[in-house]
Specification:
- The chain is mainly alpha-helical.
- The protein contains nine helices and no strands.
- Keywords: ANK repeat, Repeat.
- One of its GO terms (cellular component) is plasma membrane.
- InterPro entries: Ankyrin_rpt, Ankyrin_rpt-contain_sf.
Length: 183
């Protein structure tokens, strides 16, 4: 006997979560992750939308590593998930790690200075949160310090293809953007 319209795995899981909302906040015993953290790791934007649609407060739950879901999505470089989480919970953009790192620090630190960083920059701009680019972590590092140490170009400030000193130009562009003097 077959159903006339079979449910996809996603719709089946979504229906279970609607009926048993307490499952959304349960944690994986191994790493303390909620279902939202796991969806952020996988880059499953559909599941992220369903979970935050059921309970937007999940955006503010830390896993065992003290990471919020947005931070997890950024570390894994999932731009669509990052955008969805910021849209649903704009306050999560301001959440810091235990080392006082912003999501921009995490993007630079984890070599996610492409799509994830672009999304963060666009969303921070919309929400008047560009100051997060200048925040220092508990060791006094800004995003610029981390990008320089990791030899990572920040995409919004990429130099022309033929530039030999792309990182230096990136640094100068960021300094010009921030209005700060290089010391």
């Amino acid at each position: 006997m077959t159903a006339s319209r079979p449910l996809s795995n996603f719709h089946f899981i979504e229906e279970i979560l609607r009926r048993r909302t307490e499952f959304t906040a349960e944690r994986d015993l191994k790493n303390g992750s909620t279902l939202l953290h796991l969806a952020c790791i996988r880059g499953d934007v559909e599941m992220v939308m369903a979970l935050v649609g059921l309970d937007s407060q999940l955006c503010f739950v830390k896993d065992k590593m003290s990471m919020f879901p947005l931070q997890t999505a950024v570390i894994h470089g999932h731009g669509d998930v990052t955008r969805e989480l910021i849209f649903t919970c704009p306050e999560s953009l301001q959440m810091l790690t235990s080392q006082k790192e912003t999501v921009f620090h995490l993007a630079a630190k984890n070599y996610q200075c492409d799509i994830a960083f672009e999304v963060l920059f666009e969303e921070a701009k919309k929400l008047n949160q560009k100051h997060l680019l200048h925040e220092q972590d508990d060791e006094g590092n800004t995003v610029l310090h981390i990008a320089g140490r990791k030899h990572t170009m920040l995409p919004s400030y990429k130099a022309p293809r033929n530039a030999h000193h792309a990182l230096l130009l990136t640094v100068k562009a960021l300094v010009a953007l921030t209005g700060r003097k290089a010391g």
